[in-house]
From TrEMBL:
GO terms for molecular function: antiporter activity. Pfam families: Na_H_antiporter (PF03553). InterPro entries: Na/H_Antiport_NhaC-like_C, NhaC_Na-H+_Antiporter. GO terms for cellular component: plasma membrane. This is Na+/H+ antiporter NhaC-like C-terminal domain-containing protein. Keywords: Antiport, Cell membrane, Membrane, Transmembrane, Transmembrane helix, Transport. Residues 19-218, 245-428 form the Na+/H+ antiporter NhaC-like C-terminal domain. It is found in: Cell membrane. It comes from the Bacteria.
Length: 449
């Protein structure tokens, strides 16, 4: 059956996400104000999303199975299925590596090399380097979060702080990397070169990263324990080292995680810390430990498709275009458009692709340099992807931390996403004070192109 969108903008199509945010955040804030511990755990996020799914099926009078087809198309698209596979493979790798003693060994190694007062900065820099080199924030989160969670447990530093440093670094890399899907999508939709977008983007991201490092260095936190690390065996560390090196070499993230699972399993079998049966059970435990992130991503993909089909995204675009009257408001409009679309789809690559054509038309009409519009698309999609509590990166981080024995919710990490907050501030500043335009002044854009 073919599904042809009605083609009309409709603000009511945004209702499902509004319902989800109202329930999830509202319940969390209510319980927090009431002094209930772990306030954002009281009303399960998956249940809130399920209620939003039910509301999405009330958006029209189309037959239920017709609407279910639209929902299934969104839930089963390539981006969603890729995320779901990364979720379960990351969970399995984390579970197997921890069961054979790899996580503790890696944490002890890290604690012996990095002074406790610099752990947060170290996690941020390692994640930033890996994210930039590999172009994947999800792969970076999957590899680094178990180590960060273990370091938090050993050092006494707040776990949300270290996890925020990891995800912040991952988003830095995702935003800047030349091989990131967001970079490729932004430059292709705007018709500019990767290197030009990188130069402009770097001038905006660098001060945000430096401020983030300063915050992680000087922010008041509980004193870390100086002698928290113990002994470690290199062979136990090898699976994490292999995962990092394979990712840096550009190996596909699925092959990286599968290789990590098998390597950790072989080491566990060889030293007796795992048996064939316990290895199989740990893999299954890793799969099921990611159920919250799995269901949220699945539901979110389906709802996003229904919102787009019934005109919610079209309404956002239409309203924004009506309020654009100059180059500056055009840039603000592009930033706001991709931010809202990312909040509605919870996928920064999809947000760029959906917003890209409209952003290019706006840029041409108001003479915004395409290299600037590409930079704005990538920056603000990454900003919101890093702070929405139902985004893939924060969900994965929270799930892997919980798997490591630390009670964690995605909302707990949001206040520590300093890089995303600073990146948004410098992104807006670059519109009013075009300091980043220095990167392209020597090669001005020719609009007759």
């Amino acid at each position: 059956m073919k599904y042809k969108s009605p083609g009309q903008s409709n603000p009511f199509a945004l209702l499902p996400f509004i319902i989800f945010i109202a329930i999830y955040l509202g319940a969390g804030l209510y319980f927090q104000a009431a002094g209930v511990s772990m306030a954002f755990y009281q009303f399960p996020s998956v249940t809130a999303m399920f209620i939003a799914v039910l509301s999405a099926f009330c958006l029209s009078r189309d037959p239920v199975m017709y609407k279910f087809g639209i929902f299934s198309r969104g839930a089963g698209n390539d981006n969603i299925m890729t995320m779901l596979m990364i979720y379960i493979l990351a969970g399995a790798f984390s579970a197997v590596a921890a069961a054979m003693g790899g996580r503790d060994a890696t944490v002890n190694l890290g604690m012996s090399l990095i002074p406790p007062q610099y752990l947060t900065v170290g996690i941020f820099l390692i994640s930033a380097f890996m994210g930039t080199a590999t172009g994947t924030s999800m792969g970076t989160v999957a590899a680094i979060i178990p180590i960060a969670a273990g370091m938090a447990e050993k050092s006494g530093l707040p776990a949300p702080l270290l996890l925020g440093a990891c995800v912040s670094g991952a988003m830095f890399g995702d935003n800047l990397s030349m091989i990131s899907d967001t970079t490729i999508a932004a430059t292709r939709t705007q018709g500019c070169d990767l290197k030009d977008k990188f130069k402009m983007n770097f001038l905006i991201a660098l001060p945000a990263a430096l401020l983030t490092i300063a915050v992680f260095l000087f922010a008041p936190v509980p004193a870390a324990e100086t002698a928290a690390h113990g002994d470690f065996t290199f062979w136990k560390v090898l699976p994490y080292v292999a995962v990092l090196l394979l990712a840096l070499l550009g190996v596909n993230v699925f092959l990286v995680l599968v290789s990590g699972i098998f390597l950790a399993g072989i080491i566990g079998l060889s030293d007796g810390s795992l048996s064939v049966i316990s290895l199989a059970r740990q893999i299954w435990t890793g799969f099921t430990s990611m159920n919250e992130a799995f269901f949220l991503a699945l539901f979110c993909g389906g709802i996003s498709e229904m919102i787009s089909y019934y005109g919610g995204i079209a309404w956002l675009i239409e309203k924004l275009q009506k309020n654009i009257h100059s180059s500056r408001t055009a840039q603000l409009g592009i930033a706001l458009l991709v931010s809202l679309v990312d909040a509605a789809t919870a996928n920064n690559t999809v947000a760029i692709i959906v917003s890209g054509d409209v952003a290019r038309k706006i840029s041409a009409r108001f003479h915004v340099d395409p290299r600037k519009s590409a930079s704005l698309l990538d920056i603000f999609s990454c900003v919101f992807q890093g702070i929405i509590p139902y985004g893939a990166q924060l969900l994965t981080a929270a799930a892997l931390a919980s798997q490591s024995g630390i009670s964690m919710n995605a909302m707990d990490i949001v206040p520590h996403m300093w890089y995303c907050f600073f990146l948004a501030a410098f992104g807006i500043l670059s519109i009013y004070i075009p300091f980043a335009d220095y990167a392209i002044r020597k090669n001005p854009w020719k609009w007759e192109q």
